[in-house]
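[AMINO ACID CHAIN]
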Amino acid sequence: MGKIVLYGSMSVDGFIADVNDQPGPLFDWLLNGDVPLDESGALKVSQTSYDYTRPYWDQIGATIVGRHVFDMTDGWDGKPPGGVDHVIVVTHRPKPEGWDPEAPFHFVDGVEAAVTKAQELAGDRTVEVAAGDVGGQVLAAGLIDEVRMDVAPVVLGAGKRYFGSIDAQHLLEDPDVVLQGKRVLHLRYQVRRREV
């Protein structure tokens, strides 16, 4: 099985979007470099950000998101973002009516079921869990191996928290990656396992 990674871009005060679900300048780092991050050429980052981000993206076999993100993006028109093979949507509602049955999206009830399905689909590749409420729930369930943050130099003041509404303490190891890109600080932490 591959790693389960909680990932997202966030403000220095810990938000992944403002109160209106808008990321504002959190993704500016993806647009202000000179190295294309994907085939489209629309995303251009610094060489440091490319060297850190591209290998990570290439390892993702499945991404877990909440229904809120799925609905906000209109399900990316049935095409997973970033070329990911599968998207698992955590939801208590059925998939949208008329949803393309061939689209590589899977609708499951609960984070444990989402992780099981994602691991099955990803095999030995990485399972990415989007930051926010679902990510916080997967962390609280003890299923996250690694936390990756792309910290943008902005203070949003309020909004959607990186770890969602998690209300318990979780220890991380010291960061094993701290890299400065252009308009971003890339951080990676391993999750400290609880002793039983």
